[in-house]
Every structure is written in structure tokens, then in C-alpha cells.
């Protein structure tokens, strides 16, 4: 067991996003720790159905309670730093974090740091409608003096459907990819110089090679922040 790095705990919500976060930590760990090496990693996730039951009813305290439940289980088995590769449920990150004693990295804050370091000035935000209509990214981006834009209401609904009907099941559909590419082009026409892939599954379907704007991949940014924290 590698004792030169901290034990990372992943609070999962949807499995595709959690799996990509886990994969990135393990895959890129060898860049710092040597061949086949990465920090110790544990993952716990309640069924997405449990989260959605609260989200659909706008009962966000229930979401926070699920996050805390996972966090405490991870802490109990030795996790020394936590991440949650789900942007939407960061809406209640502050409430959940109050009940946890170990460090817990905030996905939007990590993305905003990268946006600032890259000198982006106005960021388009994609994600579930719950995320796009929340203060998760406006607050984090505002702390870095970065402006933001979200798609219009009709686009938010369509993106939400793509996420929950396709991406969380690992379904990659060309019409949906084309739709998202169009949304990103529209954000560019509104002055955005970059776009946050603010649903942890969107990187499965959109990346820099096909996006009209540079992308901020929230899943991988969070994974790399956890990796950096764990090895420092």
C-alpha cells in the first residue's frame, strides 16, 4: 500500500461520473507516484434513484443527508480527503460539509481556479437544469471575478433530458452531441470564451476536439485536484 499519499474518498451520485473521476485519479496517479501507483481510493454511492426522489420534490436536505451518509462511511474506513463528482448536489455542499471533519474539495471552486489560471473572462455553464439554475457556479466563478452565461430555458430542459435519459446510462447519441455543440456555439456568440462541462457525464460526449469553445472538464479537474491534494 502506498503510504506517501492521502486516502481519497469519492462520494458518488451517478455512476458514470463517479467512475470517470475514479479512473482519472488512478490513471494519472502514476504520473506522480510511479508505474501502476496511485493514492488509495474508496468510493461510496447511494442509488441515483434515492437522490432523485429528493431532487424531484425539491427536498434538498434529503440530498445533503445522503451526501453526509456517504462521507461518514468513507471517513470511517480511512479517507483523508473527500470529493463529490456531481455538480448538481453541490447545491447543498455547505450544509453537508458542516457535519464532516475531514477536508472536502468543492468541484465548482476547483473548476473556477482553473478558469482563472487560464485567464478566462466569461464562462458558459452546462449541466442539469438544477445546476444551471443554481448559485453553485455563479458563486464560485464570482469569487474569481469571472462572468458566466447559461443556456435559455428551452435549452436547459433539453440538456437536462440528455443527461438523465442518456448520459447517466452511458448512452452516447450523435443527435445529442450535435445539439450540445450548437448550444456551445450559441454561448460563444454571447461572449463566452470557454464552457464548463458542469455535469460529470458531459465529458463522455463533448471534449475540446469537437467543442467550439475550450472546455473546463469538471470531472477531471476535480479528480486532478484530489490527486494533487493527496500527494502533497
Structure description:
The chain is an alpha/beta fold and 232 residues long. It contains ten helices and seven strands. The longest helix has 19 residues, at 15-33. The chain has two domains: 8-106 and 221-231, Rossmann fold; 107-216, Rossmann fold, CATH 3.40.50.1860. Strands 5-4-6-7 form a four-stranded parallel beta sheet, sandwiched between helices. Helix 1 packs across helix 10 (218-231), helix 5 runs parallel beside helix 7 and helix 5 (107-117) crosses helix 10 (218-231). Helix 1 links the parallel strand 1 and strand 2 (41-45).
Quick description:
This protein is 50% helix and 12% strand. It is built from 10 helices and 7 strands.
Question: What are the main properties of this structure?
Answer:
2 domains; three-stranded parallel sheet; alpha/beta; 232 residues; 50% helix; 7 strands; single chain; 12% strand; Rossmann fold; four-stranded parallel sheet
Largest β sheet strand count, sense and barrel closure: 4 strands, parallel
Taken from the alpha-carbon principal axes, the silhouette is: globular
What fold name goes in the CATH topology slot of the largest domain?
A: Rossmann fold
Mean pLDDT: 96
Low-confidence stretches: none
The CATH architecture of the largest domain: 3-Layer(aba) Sandwich
Report the total helices: 10
Please report the first level of CATH classification, the CATH class of the largest domain.
Alpha Beta
Number of domains: 2
Secondary-structure-based class equals alpha/beta
How many strand elements? 7
Give the helix level as a range of percent. Answer: 40-55%
Strand percentage: 5-15%
Radius of gyration: 17 Å
